[in-house]
Amino acid sequence: MKIAIRSENEADHLAVEVLTREAFWNLYRPGCDEHYTTHLIRGHEDFLPDLTFVAEVDGEIVGSIVYTRSWVIDELDERVETATFGPLCVHPAWQRRGVGSALIGHSWALAAEKGYPGIIILGDPHNYCKHGFKTGKDLGVCTLDGKYPLGLLVLELRQGFFASSRRWKFQTSEVYEFDAAQVEVYDARFPPKEKKHQYSQELFAMLVRAVVE
Ligand SMILES: CC(C)(COP(=O)(O)OP(=O)(O)OC[C@H]1O[C@@H](n2cnc3c(N)ncnc32)[C@H](O)[C@@H]1OP(=O)(O)O)[C@@H](O)C(=O)NCCC(=O)NCCS
User: Fold this and answer.
1) What is the mean pLDDT of each run of 10 residues along the chain (213 residues)?
2) What is the CATH number of the domain that holds 118?
3) Which atom of ligand 1 is nearest to the CA of 121?
4) Domain-located, residue 183
5) How far is the CA of 97 from the centre of ligand 1 (A)?
6) CB-count burial class (<10 Å; 0-12, 13-18, 19+) for 10
7) Which of 108, 144, 182, 202 sits most deeply, having the most CB atoms within 10 A of its CB?
8) Ligand 1 atom at minimal distance to the Cα of residue 130
9) Secondary structure (3-state) at 194
C-alpha cells in the first residue's frame, strides 16, 4: 500500500471534514466536534497551512493532520512559538496501516526544518509515545493553570530546548474554544448520523481528568 502525503488544498476541505467526522463520530462524546474545529482552524490567524497535510491511497483522501500555532511561556514571560496538531485522523476503514504514523512523521520533519522547538499536543499518550512524545511533566511544560494533564505531550524538536531548567506554560490557540451550539448548526450541513454512547467516551472522560504527579 502506497501512502502519499501532500498539502491540503481548498478543494479537499469538504472531503477532509467528512473524513474527520467519520473518524471521530461517537469516539470521545456522542457525535463529535472535530470537523467543525477543522473548519474553524482554516479561517483562523493561528492556522499553519504549511504543516497541514492529507494522506492519500490510490488518489483517495484517507487521513488528515491540521496544525495551529501555539506557544510556551517561561517564568520571565518569554514567549516562544510552538506547533500543535489536532485534529489528526484516519478514516476508520484505513486505520492501523501506518497512515497516521506517516502523517505525524512527515509533518514532524517539516516542523523541525522550520525551526520549531517542539510540537505540543493534548492527546491520548497511547497514540503518541511511540513517536517520541514525552509527558509535559518530564520536560517542564504545564498548562496555563500550572497542571500536568496526562494528555499534555511534548515532542522536542530542538535538542535540549525543553531539557533545560526552564519551566514553561503551554498556551493553545483560542480557535479550540467554541460554543457547543455552533457545532450543532454546522453539523446540520452533513448527512444525519446517530449519536450514541460508547465506552471509549468513558475512557476519554478519565483521560482528560488524569494528571501526572
Ligand atoms: C489515532 C489515529 C490517527 C492513528 O492512525 P492510524 O493510521 O491508525 O495509525 P498507525 O496505523 O500509524 O498506527 C496505529 C497502530 O497500528 C499499528 N500498525 C501500523 N501499521 C500496521 C500494519 N501494517 N499492520 C498492523 N498494524 C499496524 C501501529 O503499530 C499502531 O499500533 P498501536 O496502536 O498498538 O501502537 C487513528 O486511529 C484515528 O483517526 N483515530 C480516531 C481519531 C483520533 O482519535 N485521533 C487522535 C486524537 S488524540
Assistant:
1) 97 98 98 98 98 97 98 96 98 98 97 98 96 97 98 96 90 97 97 97 97 96
2) 3.40.630.30
3) 48
4) no
5) 7
6) exposed
7) 108
8) 35
9) coil
Quote the radius of gyration of the chain (alpha carbons, Å): 17
β-strands 53-57, 60-74: how paired? antiparallel
| Domains identified in the chain, total number | 1
* 180 within a domain of the structure (yes/no): no
Q: What is the pTM of this model?
A: 0.97
Distance 98 CA to ligand 1 centre (A): 6
CA distance 114 to 195: 40
The protein residue whose alpha carbon is closest to atom 14 in ligand 1 is 96
Instruction: Specify if 28 maps to a domain.
Output: yes
Give the CA angle between residues 209, 212, 213 to the nearest 5°: 125
In a domain, 167, yes or no: yes
Neighbours of 44 (CB within 10 A): 14
